Predict the structure.
Amino acid sequence: MTTATGKPLQIVIPATLEALRQVSAKIEDYIAQIDGVEEPEIVTYNIVLAVQELCTNIVKHGYAGESGKIAVDLELAEAPLRLIISVRDNAPHIFDKAGWAAPNLDEPKEHGLGIWLIQQLMDEVDYQPAPGNNRWRLVKQIPQRA
Amino acid sequence: MNVKPSVLADGSIGLLALEGRFDAYEESQVRSWLDAEQAAGRSHLIIDLSGVNFIDSTALAALVRGMKLTREAEGDLLLCALRQPVRVIFELTRLDRVFPIFSDVDEAARHFDRSTATA
């Protein structure tokens, strides 16, 4: 059961680490408008963290110091209730999906957890790379109280 | 993020209390503190996360660096007072098995007291 605020929402930010908190705050507000979410604090945290990890990667490795923007679209879908998050950037560098390997959690390192965390926290993760037009689609089912 | 450094036990333990969002934008403050503690020769460190409501992988990486630095100097980095959503991320990444985690600063400081006494 969702409120009328299940309307899509677009957030556009400059590609800086400082601006990412704007995305987090708007996602938190968006999820807070959904009725009957089970364990809302955990659900919200997981979604906010997944988007934070993705956008951090875009800022650090996609734009790599160049200026640009990141667009994040939020949309609710029903049956089952799920949040669809589309992230687009115009960064010149693409994520090397083929060269990526899951981290060895038994040997903690100082990098490499971001993409793995996104995969753990979201139900679907899809990436369409293209220099200057990268698109990610993340989907998370929203558990509902009985 | 608010950062409050202090020392305990006559200056032998470095304590950093964090409050707010500990993320890629803020983590350099913790790295700077770790560098300062290393320069001061302190390898027994505690980070109080009771005020942290959000942590990301870049922040976790800063903590891993601190853990490695302190252990190389025969000390340790202890964490305390993790809120539930933050603790879930530690469990997911298995970092709860890597870091000694305590309920509060006093308990963490007592751990150092015991380990120093038995050394």
Q: What stands out?
A: The beta strands of chain B are 2-8, 13-22, 44-55, 76-80, 101-102. The longest helix of chain B spans residues 57-72. The interface with chain A takes residues 21, 23-25, 54, 56-58, 60-62, 64-65, 67, 84-85, 88-89, 92-95, 98 of chain B (CB under 8 Å).
